[in-house]
Amino acid sequence: MQAIIKGCIQKDRSSQYLLYKEFYSYGMGICRRYALNEFDAGDVLNEGFLKVFTHIDKYDESKPFKTWLARIITNTAIDKYRLNLKFSNHDDINDHIHIGQEAAIHADLAYKDLLIMIQSLSPAYRMVFNLYAIDGYTHEEIAELLNISVGTSKSNLFKARQKLQEKLLAFDKNNDSIGGEAMQQINKHE
After folding, report:
1. What's the predicted TM-score (pTM) here?
2. Does residue 71 sit in the same domain as residue 32?
3. What residue numbers bound the domain in which 139 lies?
4. pLDDT tens per residue across span 14-69
5. Do 35 and 44 form a contact (C-beta atoms < 8 A)?
6. How many distinct structural domains can be found in the chain?
7. What gap in Å lies between CA 112 and CA 114, rounded to an integer?
8. CA angle centred on 33, ends 28 and 37, rounded to 5°
9. How far apart, in Å, are the Cα atoms of 40 and each of 72, 84, 119, 161?
10. What is the CATH number of the domain that holds 8?
11. Are residue 52 and residue 104 in the same domain, yes or no?
């Protein structure tokens, strides 16, 4: 791997191709969580790899490459979100009452089904949900990254979870099954 990275630093196209090929699936997995569809995910991935190739000389070889790549791709998704921010919906958490609810979820809910549900969220909700529930950012970090208030971050997470619970309940109703693993995944970072 170090030879490929050194080739990329020297702007060697075959090394860039090998790096892209090696990490395409990993990067695309990250992009799919943030993007609305495959086309947008591909855009984020390509922009992310362009940044990787442009700044690979700043990569610290003492740290895992995957972590560095994931950070760049996540930041690229955030940049794309900011670019489209005018189409987002932000509310303050104080405008809403929390109504707790338990939901039964299909035990065999496929990753693809959950991904489709996440992608169907509004950009603001999807971004905060991914950053908080999946990537482990705090509300303070999200607020700073997205240039929103902490309350807005919490509100968007609450609404994202609420929308996902509704979608999961509908999924459960359509499949006549009971389970809880997917709901636990959604609520694991409360």
Report:
1. 0.57
2. yes
3. 89-187
4. 999 999 999 999 999 989 888 878 888 899 999 999 999 999 999 998 899 999 99
5. yes
6. 2
7. 5
8. 80
9. 16, 12, 11, 23
10. 1.10.1740.10
11. no
